[in-house]
Amino acid sequence: MSMISARANWKEKHQFTAVAKSGHTINVDGDSQVGNSPMELVLIGLCGCTGYDVASILTKKREPFTSLEVSAEGDKAPTSPNVFTEIRLLYRVGGNVSHKAVEDAVRLSEEKYCSVSAMLEKTARITTRIEYINS
Hints:
By secondary structure, the protein is an alpha+beta fold. It folds into two domains: 1-36, no CATH class; 38-133, GMP Synthetase, Chain A, domain 3 (2-Layer Sandwich), CATH 3.30.300.20. The protein contains three helices and six strands; from the N terminus they run βββαββααβ. It has helices spanning 38-60, 99-113, 115-120; strands at residues 6-12, 15-20, 25-29, 65-76, 84-95, 125-133. The strands form two sheets. A three-stranded antiparallel sheet has the order 1-2-3, with no helix packed on it. The chain has a three-stranded mixed sheet with strand order 4-5-6, covered by helices on one side. Helix 1 (38-60) crosses helix 2.
């Protein structure tokens, strides 16, 4: 079992400076004025996690992708704790890639590799869409 650690130090109001074991710091703000809100960070984490998987799989398959953008929109429950109930992922892939290879990579990330997705799917319905950009 591997351990990951993080901490957040309060600055003022709802603002924190957070740092993880990697040493990179980010601003977290419950009011989203000087940093990302915690829920925005969850969506960012999902985009980064699945994006990493898809890029890694496409590279291993020697697919000539030239760009990859993953975006997410989430709907939250109306009552506390306001968890995500639905998340829509959009993958925008550039390059002369096989559509089947991209679809397989997205499916593998969703079903096997992305730990953030695995956690979020406990409360949220996650849907995916792929757009191809010929570059």
